[in-house]
Amino acid sequence: MSRVPSVLNPTEEDIKLLLSAQCHIGTKNVTKAMATYVHKRRADGINLINIGKTWEKLVLAARVITAIENPQDVVVVSARPYGHRAALKFAKYIGAEAIVGRFTPGTFTNYITRSFREPRLVICTDPRSDFQAVLEASYVNIPVISLADTDASLKYIDVAIPTNNKAKHSIGLIYWLLARAVLRLRGSLEYAATWEVMVDMFFYRDPEEIEKENEAAEFGENEFSAAAEAATGEWEVEAEGVAGIAAAADWSAQTATADWADDVEAPANASWDA
Fold first, then answer.
1. Could you read off the pLDDT of 105-155 as tens digits, one per residue?
2. Are 165 and 81 in contact (CB under 8 A)?
3. Beta bridge partners of 75
4. Which of 166, 167, 160, 126 is closest to 143 using CA atoms?
5. Can you tell me the distance from the alpha carbon of 142 to that of 269, in angstroms, rounded to the nearest whole number?
6. Chain-centre distance of CA 55, in angstroms?
7. Residue 77: in which H helix or E strand, if any?
8. 121: DSSP letter
9. CA gap 227, 259 in Å, rounded
10. In which element (H, E) is residue 41 found?
11. Ramachandran area for residue 204 (φ above 0: left; ψ -120 to 50: alpha; else beta)
12. How do 121-124 and 144-148 pair as beta strands?
């Protein structure tokens, strides 16, 4: 870490996060441009990425993003589904703009389209899936930062962050670390303070899992409401019984004091001629 200032060096927790998210796991293929970022090759043919160089490029990318005065001039592009949530969260916390899903051709070159943008910096999740955005950025001289695996092509890529960009946890963690580094360089977050935003917020979530969780939550709420209704019903039955007993006592009291069969005596001075 000699190329990085001491204040920007990773902590032991950061290294553990990178390893637990498998950011160092590459692919079996290695391109010529990515060979310098490979630490070694395992027995099964998987290439391992050097975590130290990943952190160096992460800090460099954060410094490039911080140099942009207006954060809205930064566009985050992610066509890969695993990067949709991470790109949206990253753009939200640093104030950038996110383009997830299909990238409309001409977004950076054709000013007639509704989705026309003129960014000063483009951040991509995968150089292959986001190649249309990278190509258009090269036409208008926009620098590009991209996450790159060992088999990625670095054509038209200015800053490559070597990492595993095929797993949802590694993509989410890299975007989380990059957002935290940008906030720290801007001065809105202290280096000694921990960021209150959890890294889980940047992880991709399967829609089926979300539906299952919602169904489980609804089922639990229904059970709770049914139990509450049953409890209130029992209380109502008991209240009705007590009220019925009280009402019966009142009616019996009235019948004891007043009898309809008793004749009421007329006043002595009452007369028809009066």
1. 989 998 888 889 899 999 999 998 899 999 999 999 999 999 999 988 889
2. no
3. 97, 122
4. 160
5. 117
6. 23
7. strand 74-78
8. E
9. 48
10. strand 38-41
11. beta
12. parallel
The Cα 28–Cα 52 span in angstroms is 20
Residues 6+ apart with CB under 8 A from 41: 47, 48
> What whole-number distance in Å separates Cα of residue 181 and Cα of residue 141?
25
- What distance in Å separates the CA atoms of residue 148 and residue 216, rounded to the nearest whole number? 38
Residue 49 bridge partners (DSSP)? 38
Run of H or E residues at 147: strand 144-148
Q: Can you say whether the dihedral through the CA atoms of 256, 258, 263, 268 is positive or negative?
A: positive
What phi and psi, each to the nearest 5 degrees, are found at residue 99?
-125, 100
The tokens 């019948």 sit on which residue? 255
Condensed to tens digits (0 to 9), the pLDDT of residues 47-104 reads 899 998 999 999 999 999 999 999 899 999 998 888 899 999 999 999 999 998 888 8
**Cα–Cα dist 213/55, whole Å:** 35
Residues whose CB falls within 8 Å of the CB of residue 69, separated by 6 or more in sequence, listed in order: none
